[in-house]
Amino acid sequence: MAAAVRAGLWHRGVISATRRGSHSSTALKPQYDAVIIGAAYLQKGGLKTAVLERRHVLGGAAVSEEIIPGFHFSRASYLLSLLRPHIYQDLELKKHGLKVYMRDPYSFTPMLEDGVRGRPPPSLTLGADLAKTQQEIGKFSEKDAKVYPDFLSYLERLACAIHPLLDAPPVDIPGLTQGSLRKKISALSSLKPLVKSGNDVLNRWFESEPLRATLATDSVIGANTSPNNPGSGYVLLHHVMGELEKEKGAWGYVEGGMGGVSQSIAHSARSLGADIFTNRDVEQVLIGQDGSAKGVVLTDGTEVHSKVVLSNATPYITFKQLTPQDALPEAFIKSVDQIDYTSPVTKINVAVDKLPNFLAAPNSADGKPGPHHQCSIHLNCESVEVLEEAYREGQQGRPSSRPMIEMTIPSVLDPTLAPPGCHVVSLFIQFTPYLLEGRRAWTDQDRERFADTAFDWVERYAPGFKKSIVGKDILTPADLERVFGLTGGNIFHGSMSLDQLYLARPLPSVADYRTPVKRLYLCGSGSHPGGGVMGAAGWNSALKVLADFKRL
Q1: What pTM value is reported for the model?
Q2: What angle do CA 367, 468, 413 make, to 5 degrees?
Q3: Could you tell me which residue ranges the Amine oxidase domain spans (predicted)?
Q4: Which residue from 55, 282, 330, 424 has the least number of CB within 10 angstroms?
């Protein structure tokens, strides 16, 4: 039997499909082949599988919740791109209800400074139409406009080099040291982008600040790093190597919110025979007399036995909270304590009663959304230095006074999310520390104060925004940890830094998803290749489990 603990997909259905307390009509059995999160591939491989979800709503951090009456939010993750195409196809997610709204254009960066007298301030819009995008970039630099197509080709080549590494467990160290020289060089050359900073990449290509700053957001989004720090080049690549509806690098909105992804996977798993349960909080992994995992015990005392256990919780939760400490080597526990979960992210979900009206792109008289409203809207991105200053403040234990804000309004494309004329707004904000100066925890007053700071900045770009707010949900790093089980509030289940990637993710000794406890496996974003609602770690882990299961 296999057992797995669900803790959270991040990095994106309808709310009625995940009612409080809803779960499979099948009763929880005392024995399974697998009790896991992300059960579809094991069930498809012939293992009788159960999924145990701690919260009342299925999906970890990829959930839809009606936290304000009438408004349905992608409460944590909010965009889809990185889900591996073969998983999309294998599990027939479209057949099982997944619908995605493509965005074109996809990026809008309004400026604050005054334009020509009587005209709106300047802005930069990027989209799939290359000629239009070059025209937009040309407002700031003709040179940048000319080389932009070459830059896109460069990113695609890098992404193609990385793709083979995503859909397989990391190459083992002996494989690298004992393999042919040609194979070693090939593997290492594929990892070259990891050592660069985002600015190293962007400065090589561009001179205009609005374009560099807009693109630099992808090098720091969700990461407690600066565009100038080594390794941020990989974070940039991580966020552009996805694919949606066969369009490279595209990001889209899931109908009904990000819970639509989780629900479609759940429907696929159920169709294959998996049992899925919510409100099932795992207390501990059960360890047999031979030292191997034999199932889990829930907080209500229920024991569920299995031949293997998979944990989609963060490595910290898996090894420090769910696994009995006497079952793990002391040196390994110390290594787990060194994993970096630092998060700079505060997510604010906002319900508004009218469409934001940007100075740089005023609303039309009929009040209908413009093309820019469907974009990722980058605020406080006039220059890379603005991002750098926000980062520096965050490292001092102070929420950024001029934070980097990625704003999305999915209801402009998906009318199921809000009442007519109203909208849901997502503000993904950096940089905010887990603990404030003096290692002080956030209070409600601190949350409100920071939300006001963020709203004040939005107001400067879109006057009238503050008056349109009818409700909000503020999630600091500590709140993301408390609600979704994201250790440190880190959306990737651990930093995507150079020392926590590939062979070292989350630690070299467990990079192949197997743990020191026999028959206990990792299957979440804390493992290779990381977070972002990819499914790749679960796929790779399932392959390991199925191979090992044949020998049990």
Answers
A1: 0.91
A2: 50
A3: 39-356
A4: 330
